[in-house]
Design goal:
about 280 residues; alpha+beta; Structural Genomics Hypothetical 15.5 Kd Protein In mrcA-pckA Intergenic Region, Chain A; Pseudouridine synthase; 3 domains; ten-stranded mixed sheet; four-stranded antiparallel sheet
Length: about 280
């Protein structure tokens, strides 16, 4: 059970429902709270969505939110940041975020379940199995909804060849017709924009900092392959796998505003050594 508290500070009374909508509570979550016997309270007393809220009233939401995943506490993934409504893990490479047929007990979701058995696993930014770095997980559906478009992500990649000092790749991405996995640049694809800056390079590789305007599947991998500089280790898109056993991609920074206080928060993860050793 997750509890979220709001204090009504306006002079003019409102309804509980209108106040919660103003606070960003989704219509779906409101319907769920209405169905729960103890879904909403005002100053500790059960309240309906149509009831009045006045200045100084404390509205508490009791969110019953659980979905079973097999817990696995032996994975021991470090938390880079945590508060009452979210946790940011520093995911190692080779660990899937979600369970699948091939990975049923060795995922970030399984580790999360060992820490919070009463909560549903709700990753806000999803990383591929081989991508390392920061993965934010919301602790309730309201937090997930509020965080979805509230996080600025910075990625780092080691790519093959020498990139320009900085650049932008603006090329639409679609699924390759004969594959359910591979993406490609195609005129009829969805818009995709990637900005990058070169941090260091040698004759073989370049380390780049990346910011995305869009979030297409495999966007970074596809765009750098498109400009002739596929990610090191990314055999799926033509990268050289001689020097690293995974695609060299790391989510190194998350910046977001606290959904309750508005305070700017920055979480950082160092680039992994297997990537740094290439440059």
């Amino acid at each position: 059970m997750q509890k979220i508290k709001y204090i009504y500070n306006e002079e003019t009374p409102s309804t509980v429902e209108n106040f919660l909508k103003y606070k960003g509570i989704s219509a779906r979550l409101l319907r769920k709270l209405k169905r729960q016997p103890d879904g909403m309270t005002r100053d500790g007393i059960l309240v309906r969505s149509i009831d009045t809220v006045e200045k100084g009233d404390v509205i508490c939401l009791n969110i019953n939110d659980s979905s079973f995943l097999e817990p696995n506490g032996s994975l021991d993934v470090p938390a880079a940041y945590e508060n009452n409504y979210m946790v940011v893990f520093d995911k190692p490479p080779y660990m899937p975020v979600h369970p699948s047929i091939k990975h049923q007990g060795d995922t970030l979701g399984n580790y999360f379940a060992s820490l919070y058995p009463e909560l549903t696993f709700r990753p806000v930014n999803r990383l591929d199995r081989n991508t390392s770095g920061l993965c934010a997980v919301a602790k309730n559906p309201h937090s997930a909804n509020m965080l979805q478009n509230n996080i600025i992500k910075t990625y780092y990649a080691v790519v093959c060849g020498r990139t320009e000092p900085e650049g932008t790749v603006n090329a639409p991405i679609a699924r390759q017709s004969e594959s359910i996995i591979i993406r490609t640049v195609r005129d009829d694809g969805k818009p995709a924009v990637t900005h990058y800056k070169t941090l260091m390079q040698n004759d073989k590789y370049s380390l780049v900092e990346i910011h995305l305007e869009t979030g297409r599947t495999h966007q970074i991998r596809v765009h750098f392959a498109y400009i002739g500089c596929p990610l090191a280790g990314d055999e799926l898109y033509g990268g050289n796998a001689e020097d690293i056993n995974r695609h060299a991609l790391h989510c190194g920074k998350l910046v977001f505003n606290d959904i309750f206080t508005g305070k700017k928060t920055e979480v950082i993860s160092d680039i992994k050594n297997d990537m740094l050793s290439l440059v």
